[in-house]
Amino acid sequence: MLRIVHTPEDSVEVDPSGKRPGRGAYLCRQQSCWETALKRRSLEHALKTTFDDATKAALTAYAETLPQNTGGSAESSRF
Fold it and tell me: What is the pTM (predicted TM-score) of this model?
């Protein structure tokens, strides 16, 4: 699971250490989880913020670096 944090400075960032201050949410390490969370805006809801275009683009670009689903048992994330 990867933590995404809404920082006190009002930015949204991936938090690989899991220790950054701010409101956090977790997503699995698969592109499909990120695509679904961004499309349904569930990540915005979990972080209690609205993403601007730059934030959406940055999170989408990060998601593209993650592995595709490989079948088998996929992790799921609920908010």
Answer: 0.82
